[in-house]
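Co-fold these.
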Amino acid sequence: MRWLAAALVAVLLALPAFPSVFGSYAVTVFTLIFFYGFLGQAWNVVGGYAGQLSAGHAAFLGVGAYTAALLSAEAGVTPWLGMFAGGALAAVLGAVVGFLGFRFGLRGFYFVLLTVALSEICRIIAANTEAVGGALGYYITFTGNPRQFQFQDTRAYYYIALALMVAATGLVAWLERRRFGVYLAAIRDDEAACEAAGVDTFRYKMLAMLLSSFLTGVGGTFYAFYLFSLQPNTVFGVPLSVEIIIRPIVGGAGTVLGPVVGSFILSPLAELSRHYFAQGGWHGAHLIVYGALLVTVVLFLPEGAYPRLARALRRRAAPTA
Amino acid sequence: MSLLEARGLSKHFGGVQAVAALDLDVAEGEVVGLIGPNGAGKTTVFNLLSGFLAPDAGEIRFRGRSVLGWKPHAICALGLARTFQIVRPFPRLTVLDNVLVGALGRHPDAGEARARARRVVDRLGLGGKASSLAAGLTLAERKRVELARALATEPALLLLDEVMAGLNPTEIATLVGLIRDIHAGGVSILLIEHNMRAVMALSNRIVVLNFGERVAEGPPAAVASHPKVIEAYLGEDDVHAAPAR
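Predicted complex below.
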């Protein structure tokens, strides 16, 4: 399994070096696969492992994106540092929503509503603050300077997104086998039983939220300097939160490779259907494909695609082993 | 020396007085049985002692410290572990991981904790099921997982809530042996039990609860013949009717 993963990463690293077989559109699609795989992995920590269904992760992405963009344009701070400032600020926001939700024992739908409300509050604040561009959004001037996280060659984004996804997945794989990961999985199953077994559930849910929001905030820098424009309605919008959540759920929430598998399934589908439906004048029709797919997964693969895939691979490997 | 000391413990739910000014002690090395008819307040007592409920009045001291207002995980860290009457193993975790959750509190290193959990799993005869998901186990097995998880927290006092219920006589005999074994290992035990044979066999002392109050206390033999106890279990009329026949 480890060998397979290493080989896959090596192939993905080498692919863009062959522009003839790997056109610019493919680079874009893969960049999105990796980036959404990364965001899904960040969400997976609190939403998948700890089972706290945040539907407002766009807020963390948005805060990270605005922070890095503003620091870069207004204070001349390189986004390579700004990304950590953005992550830290997103984590502060994560601490606020986590404290409110976990301290007062909000579960299930109520926690979902709290997180949606949080991202809506962020959206309204951003849309009404002239200093960050208001409702029209904030635009980043393209300089092509790598020190400003800007690249002429789009393949740079490909590698950065791949690095983010691999790093986050490696971190989650490492945490899964340690106390932190075991506790989160137990919290997802039964919080009262956790408390009885000596687990400080509040503390571990908070830690999961902090890590998740920090990583998502770091992703905000990539988002800002890949798209060069930040629209409050998009970057703090519920649809973006759904994009973040749906990949780990389809791939397998609370598994190491679930978000990655989910992104490999959904991101190309989203991109291609968006592309073709838009050509035919059917804007937004890709969301119907999403909806249909989500229903299918919930009905037939409630634990996600990855656990099923892993079992099939193990079964195939078993006779030779 | 008293390990657990509860004084004047009271708790009501709406108009129902579940526990009324209860004094309860467990000495170090003791096995105390807590019995009483359904609705006597036994499980409420457990919830109060383990921090899942806050008492309306009273004081709880464990290992010489007041644990009033402590969260359950903190009380567990101090050495009081409990099982639930309706078992709650983590269904999507394996048996070993279930027990591991308990062991990690004392052993933050996952490798060390896993080795400890493994030993507890083997000791409770769950070795063959270590990598099965808890959701797929029989009731008897799930009860043992629950016990193993509590035991893995390395408690000084173990609160067992009807661990015999729903088990067949062979399983009960095995479990009685296991509990004796745990006690011999230096763990004091407070158990709620409806299975009289088991509770009589295990306990040094029995406390009888009815309507949230302690109605009798003493060694098993004395308690079994106590008129108040017979009354609590069979009702007043039966007691008076019985000699007439």
